[in-house]
Amino acid sequence: MITIKTDSRKVVLGDTFVALRGIRTDGHDYIKDAIENGAKKIVCEEGKYSVSTLVVPDTRAYLNQLLQVTYNETFKKIKIIGVTGTNGKTTVTHLLRESLNKVGIKCASIGTLGFYVGSNLVEDLENSTPDLCDLYEYISRAIDLKCKYLVMEVSSHALMNGRVETIEFSHAIFTNLTQDHLDFHVTMQNYVMAKQCLFKKVKPSGLAIVNMDDSMSTNFLLPTNHNITFGYGDAMFKILSEELGQHETKFTFSYQQNVYEVHTKLVGKYNIYNMMPVLIFLMCIGIEPVKILKVIYSLTPPEGRFEVIPYKNNQIIVDYAHTPDAVIKVIETAKLWAKGNIYVVFGCTGERDRLKRPIMARIVSEQATRFIITEDDLYYEDFEQIKNDMLLGVTKNNYEVILDRKEAIIQGISYLKENDALLILGKGHEDMLKIREKRLPFNDKEVVLSYLQNDLNYTNK
Q: Which of 145, 194, 324, 404 lies at a CB distance of 3.0 to 4.6 Å from 359, suitable for a disulfide?
């Protein structure tokens, strides 16, 4: 049990509270709350309190050193795999955890979907990458539960905010890098450099698995790492061909003069890129190729990632896509088998990168038959501002605006006639809408299923 805390709300009797100064908050403002919750010791940069107090020049530097000295010897019992990139982090993390468990190697995961041990969800998480003390707590619990590996999503925000500062990784995986988070990083170069930090944390004996088809890939091929590359181009693991179907994908790749044929239930070309790091990792740790290929076919995508709900002769697809690159890939995949029209329901997140809003709207306007602009997580931003940003990219008069997301989804379903597809994008697996200080229960898939259950003409084929 980690007894060092940086969040006063999580302090219990006997803990040490370290007051960190952040971009928006200052832990010193919450010292009294920590003491009231039972903190026995305070580490701060100024002040004296009613419990044992240690004043240091830099609390963040002190925390990093304290965690390393106290826990890093224990952490040698587990290998930590970091996955970073704009899109695909959650899917790769999910697939890698599931595949390791299926070959008999106990694995935990930390990411957007929560903290998992084996195939069991242990705890939902507020951030894809938790703060450093929480992260240490989850790693410790995984060790206690006899996990050999822990695979985790590593976001650019986490890397810049010191949430993985003292963690060493046995493996790092780069999926891709496209426009996102420029509200935080300002420039794409800053975004790249943030992601690159993960690859500077790979142990000397570790591996870096890099998607060579991405235009930014060379930034992640550090000379200090043992680099393994994959892609359709010049790569160690070279993808040779693919067959993209409605219900499965087949592809071949070569490695060391051997050719392997892979069958997976995940659809779309982008899922070949998600599957390749999993194949490579399993091969690198010595799993037999025949066993790997069998396990790969048994894998299913994580919840809310191109999740298909049949409706009469149509398909309703719920997906987490919330970047321009992800949106275009999901639409392209739907077009592979939708003979009729493509409809889209989506919005953009408030208080996030405004530059990508018109880009996403332009893609949808050009690719969809018709689409509905609706609310996503607004936080404290006004919907009108988000909508107006999106409309700057609209190129056709093929849209309508429905603020209420439930109404927008139902309206989208009403468009469906024969062999059409409705894409509901942006929220995926998430089960709430974040509007100002409110957290409103909401799940896209549940809204769809609830509506369809009341449709007397609905039969789930």
A: 324
| Structure tokens given for 246 | 């409605």
Tell me: the pLDDT tens digits for 355-407? 999 999 999 999 999 999 999 999 999 999 999 999 999 999 999 999 999 99
- Describe the strand order of the beta sheet including 169-174 as a list of residue ranges: 120-123, 114-117, 107-111, 149-153, 79-84, 169-174, 202-211, 226-231, 237-244, 249-255, 258-264
Q: How many CB atoms lie within 10 A of CB 152?
A: 29
For residue 245, the 8-state DSSP code is -
Does 240 have pLDDT greater than 60? yes
Half-sphere exposure of 62 (CA within 13 A, CB side): 19
Rounded Cα distance, 96 and 206, in Å: 17
Confidence band, pLDDT 50/70/90 cuts, at residue 461: very low
Cα separation, 303 vs 319, in Å, equals 9
Which residue in 163, 139, 22, 8 sits closest to 81, CA to CA? Answer: 139
What tokens were used for 94? 């999910």
Specify the pairing of strand 149-153 against strand 169-174: unpaired
Give dist(CA 22, CA 161) in Å, integer.
8
Report the distance separating Cα 123 and Cα 129, nearest Å.
Answer: 13
Please provide residue 421's backbone torsions phi and psi, each rounded to the nearest 5 degrees: -130, 135
**DSSP 8-state assignment for residue 177:** -
Neighbours of 284 (CB within 10 A): 13
User: Residue 148: which residues within 8 A CB-CB, separation 6 or more?
Assistant: 78, 79, 100, 105, 106, 107
Is pTM beyond 0.85 here?
yes
Contact 365, 393 (CB under 8 A): yes
CA distance 189 to 2: 36
Q: Is 286 left (phi over 0), alpha (psi -120 to 50) or beta?
A: left
Tell me the three state secondary structure of residue 164.
coil
Three-state secondary structure call for residue 261: strand
Q: DSSP characters for 58-100?
A: -HHHHHHHHHHHHHTTGGGGSEEEEEESSSSHHHHHHHHHHHH
The residue count for the chain: 461
SS3 21: strand
Can you tell me the distance from the alpha carbon of 440 to that of 427, in angstroms, rounded to the nearest whole number?
13
3-state helix, strand, coil in the chain (%, to 5): 35, 25, 40
DSSP 8-state assignment for residue 176: -
* 3 state SS of 317: strand
What letter represents residue 348's amino acid?
Answer: C
Sorted by sequence, the CB contacts under 8 Å of residue 288 that are 6+ apart come out as: none
What is the layout of strands, in order, in the sheet containing 399-401? 307-311, 314-319, 421-425, 342-346, 370-373, 399-401
CA 176 from chain centre, in angstroms, equals 12
d(CA 366, CA 381) in angstroms, rounded, equals 27
